[in-house]
Design goal:
Strand order of the largest sheet: 2-3-1-4-7
Radius of gyration: 20 Å
Distance between the termini: 45 Å
Largest sheet: 5 strands, parallel
Helix content: 40-55%
Order of helices and strands: HEHEHHHEHEHEEHEH
Number of strands: 7
Low-confidence stretches: none
Mean pLDDT: 91
Structural class: alpha/beta
Bound molecules: adenosine-5'-diphosphate
Number of helices: 9
């Protein structure tokens, strides 16, 4: 009888612990594969905040002594040193808005940054790895134009504004990101293959580990439209028994 009561209590405790544990989702993909757009939609459908690492870095206060070095690296398309990323992400994740979990866009991006997850024993519910041919990505990024105040994104060929160089809503000028020129894009793609693809490989080979950080990984072809990418992600997640609000 005593044992029975103990087992029931243990069950109840584990169920409530599971219900309370934060949900983490991770997006990996070369620049231009659409992690940001995917992350935005997932954030809305799953009700989880999105952590865009580059936005976290950009939002560091100007008084931060390392800000100038960080901005310089970002504009030249170089990765920001791991130690700085570790510090910035630790401060960001400590905010109460992430108590229920988060979607990571652009983190971890090096093998060293994986330690952050290991140190915190974080469990990633699923990882989406987006892939596409480099030439498609170069075209996408080189033609990208942004309305900075709103974040609206255009493309000179596939999604041009009504008037060239002007935002459709405000008429304000569109800008090209400093790291969206062809030379820097190709460098970012090489860095991705060299530094971040090993993170995807790590995720793939660790998903089976019973006490591992990653529970599931899906590989999604991101060469087509965003709608195609989304529906392929949904189909692959369904095969892994992951049901999302946005996938019906
Ligand atoms: P993209 O992935 O398209 O190159 P992002 O907006 O994700 O662009 O990142 C812009 C820049 O921010 C990167 O080139 C790099 O300098 C920096 N950055 C973002 N995330 C990381 C990270 N996890 N580690 C190191 N640097 C990062």
């Amino acid at each position: 009888m005593q044992l029975m009561r103990f087992l029931v209590l243990l069950c109840l405790f584990s169920v409530s612990a599971m219900a309370d544990s934060p949900r983490y989702i991770m997006l990996i993909g070369a620049p231009g594969t659409g992690k940001g757009t995917l992350g935005d939609k997932l954030s809305k459908t799953e009700g989880l905040p999105l952590i865009t690492t580059s936005a976290v870095l950009k939002n560091l206060p100007d008084s931060d002594p390392l800000k100038a070095e960080i901005v310089d690296k970002m504009q030249s398309g170089e990765l920001v040193p791991d130690a700085l990323i570790y510090k910035a992400m630790a401060a960001e994740l400590a905010k109460p808005k992430y108590s229920k979990g988060a979607i990571f866009d652009g983190f971890p991006r090096t093998q060293k940054q994986i330690e952050f997850l290991n140190d915190r024993k974080m469990q990633i519910e699923f990882v989406v790895v987006l892939y596409a041919d480099d030439e498609i990505l170069v075209k996408r990024l080189a033609g990208r134009r942004i309305h900075e105040p709103s974040g609206r994104v255009y493309h000179v060929d596939s999604m041009p504004p009504k008037n060239p160089g002007e935002d459709d809503v405000t008429g304000e000028p569109l800008v090209q990101r400093k790291d969206d020129n062809e030379w820097t894009i190709r460098k970012r793609l090489l860095d991705y293959r060299d530094q971040t693809q090993p993170v995807a490989v790590w995720a793939i080979f660790n998903q089976a580990a019973t006490d591992g950080v990653v529970k599931r990984v899906v590989l999604v072809n991101a060469s087509g439209s965003f709608e195609d990418t989304w529906s392929m992600m949904c189909s692959k997640l369904a095969l892994e028994s992951v049901k999302l609000n946005g996938c019906r």
